[in-house]
Design goal:
There is one protein chain. Strands 14-12-15-17-26-25-24-21-22 form a nine-stranded mixed sheet. With 504 residues, the chain is of the alpha/beta class.
């Protein structure tokens, strides 16, 4: 058993989605960093956007802890591996405190908090209520007495009298301290769009954000919150290798490969564990912008295109025709390409967005429409049923999807390797389009939950390198690609260094 005698930690939870827990989490992290504390952030569930904001506020990659994908024990091991022993560790929950995969609340924020033996700070939206807030908190206490509720944050408070009445009601009924009361703020702190919050790279008013977060933090008892985090019980985590890099380390032996990772404002949905797994397996990661680079980097052996918001940047992507041509040329050379969601859209012939259609790379013979309603939102479980270069037939893959785009139906659809048993996928309960050496699907996989993913990508890259040693070189402007970071510099992978304020 691994015994953590310290690792101060706190889970920020809400009664529902949009309760204000993200703003509270960002305000706490930002204020503590300003005060010189070492902080680390985690996001419960598979969400990329919240994790990107937590990464920005904490200054290091925020890890996703998702017990549905990876199991509760592995989620706890991931926390054990990445938390600060002598610093403040914050876990932002998702949805409501007890909302999980079923009526019993399996895989909920509450269950994760208990697994981490972490105190819970509950954010309550008190707009248009007073003593009812006390009833809601009391109900949470009684629903699960084993949960360590430590304090309450009131959100959308309408004046000092409103705050006083609710605080008195909650503290007298529950015995829990009210550790903050945030007034209703016009316009909110972070704008949202069709997939939730905007990302840090797309936020239009980053210069003003630190001031607004400081205004939120001024309404929180930061010192008492920090004190509660330091008094939690020692965490016992079973030893295991589930979240280690052992399964992918040295997959390539003495024959390393170079993998291009398309990362910019349009494509920024990457779990840090996925990138680390590729690097641990012997890959040199070469980051390139589909918005700015003229072409793909030279001497690459595979391409990884994550999710993001290509529709928002569709005009810029379509204008960068030289990059789109280089991507098409790489696909014609049968270079392995792994694309998720937004990556699938980049490989399509076109994207329709807000009434306009934009030309993409045309690697896969499909067109994509982006609509006003979601076409897939939640967890995915699928079984590989067709031969493909990436995964063996019969393999069961678990991931998640969140897309407002859909493939336009056509007479002949590309082959999809997987049968989706939970979720939506690309079409007709199928996902994982197979075309040449390409896998393109709406399902996002997490390397901790699916370690075979990195192994497959690495081996395909090595195979491609061996088969095409004498292939004609693609003309590349190598200066357009970002330099590959060392493994210990992966702290910047989810953040936007240009947008982040300089902290002491």
């Amino acid at each position: 058993m691994t015994l953590l005698a310290n690792s101060p930690r706190m889970v920020i939870a809400g009664l529902s989605g949009d309760s204000g827990k993200s703003i509270v989490a960002l305000a706490i992290l930002y204020r503590l960093r300003q005060d010189g504390f070492a902080v680390r952030a985690f996001k419960k569930g598979p969400d990329y956007v919240d994790a990107a904001w937590l990464s920005w506020a904490s200054g290091s990659p925020a890890r996703n802890l998702d017990s549905w994908l990876m199991g509760m024990e592995t989620a706890a091991q991931s926390f054990d591996k990445h938390c600060l022993r002598l610093g403040f560790n914050l876990v932002e929950g998702n949805r409501g405190l007890f909302d999980g995969a079923d009526a019993a609340g399996t895989h909920s924020t509450a269950e994760l908090a208990k697994a981490l033996q972490a105190p819970v700070l509950l954010v309550v939206n008190v707009a248009k209520m007073t003593r009812t807030a006390a009833a809601l908190v009391l109900g949470c206490q009684h629903l699960d007495p084993n949960l360590q509720l430590a304090g309450i944050i009131l959100n959308r408070v309408n004046g000092s009298r409103h705050e006083m009445v609710i605080q008195t009601a909650i503290e007298s009924a529950t015995g829990l301290p009210v550790l903050g009361a945030i007034p209703a703020m016009k316009g909110g702190i972070l704008p949202d769009r069709h997939l939730g919050l905007v990302t840090p790279s797309d936020h239009k008013n980053m210069d003003d954000l630190p001031r607004r977060l400081d205004a939120v933090a001024a309404h929180l008892d930061i010192q008492r919150i920090l004190s509660l985090a330091t008094t939690c019980s020692p965490l016992n985590v079973p030893d295991g290798t589930a979240c280690s890099d052992v399964s992918v380390q040295h997959q390539l032996g003495n024959n390393p490969v170079r993998i291009a990772v398309v990362r910019d404002a349009a494509f920024n949905f990457y779990y840090p564990e996925n990138l680390e797994a590729l690097a641990a397996g012997g890959a040199e990661l070469v980051f390139v912008s589909a918005l700015e680079a003229a072409e793909l980097p030279q001497d690459i052996d595979a391409i990884y295109i994550g999710g993001g918001f290509p529709e928002v940047h569709a005009c810029e992507l379509a204008a960068n025709s030289s990059f789109l041509r280089s991507l098409h040329a790489a696909a014609e050379q049968k270079m392995p390409i792994y694309a998720e969601c937004g990556g699938l859209m980049l490989l399509a012939r076109s994207i329709q967005w807000n009434g306009n259609r934009y030309t993409m790379s045309g690697v896969i013979p499909i067109d994509v429409d982006v609509d006003a309603v979601s076409h897939g939102h939640g967890y995915v479980e699928m079984t590989v049923t067709e031969p493909n270069p990436f995964f063996p037939e019969g393999a069961v893959l678990k991931g998640h999807e969140f897309h407002y785009s859909r493939i336009v139906p056509q007479l002949v659809m590309p082959l999809a390797a997987c049968k989706v048993t939970r979720g939506t996928g690309c079409y007709d309960k199928r996902d994982g389009l197979i075309f040449n050496n390409i896998w393109a699907g709406y399902t996002h996989l997490h390397a901790t939950a699916s370690p075979e993913w990195a192994i497959c990508v690495l081996r395909l890259a090595q195979k491609h390198k061996a088969e095409l040693r004498t292939r004609p070189a693609i003309s590349i402007q190598s200066a357009s690609a970002l330099s590959s970071p060392e493994l210990d510099q992966l702290s910047s992978l989810l953040g936007d260094a240009k947008a982040a304020p300089v902290l002491p």
